[in-house]
Amino acid sequence: MANVNNLTSKILRDAEERKESILASAEEDKNKILSKKIAKAKELEKEIIQKAELEAKTKKERILSSASLKVRNNKLSAKQEVIKEVFENSIDMLATISGDDFLRFIKNSILSLGEIGEQTLILNKEGMELVDLTFIYDLNQSLGDKGNIKLSPNTGNFKGGFILESNGIEINNTYEALVSSLKDELEFEVARVLFN
Predict the structure, then answer these.
(1) Which residues of the chain have pLDDT under 70?
(2) pTM value?
(3) Over the stretch 102-140, which tens digit does the pLDDT of each residue have?
(4) What whole-number distance in Å separates Cα of residue 123 and Cα of residue 143?
(5) Which residues contact 90 (CB under 8 A, 6 or more apart)?
(6) Quick one: which H or E segment has residue 147?
(7) Is residue 94 a contact partner of residue 122, using CB atoms and an 8 Å limit?
(8) Distance CA 46, CA 121 (A)
(9) What are the angstrom distances between the C-alpha of 109 and each of 44, 69, 112, 149, 163?
């Protein structure tokens, strides 16, 4: 019986040792698995942080670029508004020239056209107050056989200058048309003077 007890004790001790060995091995496997999972989680965390930082940087650059573009567009719009105002003011200044200068402008402009035939001179309200039949007679005398100008009884809706009209065809010498025709040529120069 002592052998059975010894044998049972030995089996129990072996089982206990085996159990300890299995538990130690399981604990070691558990620690290895946990270490791998923690390392993988830290690696994933690092990747997520890098990706978030990159996205934040990209978003910041986009926001700054958009803001910069908006500022540039606003500046450009303001400059264009100032340039537009300069041209509008130049029309207003032309509209304030003296009566004698205005009459000289009409006469010189019409004479420079060469042969013009029969034309109707259209003026705005202020121009109608300055031009009389004597001026028209003198103008026609200066033209000789090249043309015959008649004064229109109707006034035009423009700030200054004049329009010559014949059979629906107009020669537009209003201040607005003259300034507009020079605008493309002068816009760069005006911008240079204003903003440099």
Answers:
(1) 1-2
(2) 0.63
(3) 999 999 999 898 778 899 999 999 999 999 999 999 999
(4) 19
(5) 179
(6) strand 147-155
(7) no
(8) 83
(9) 82, 46, 5, 13, 11
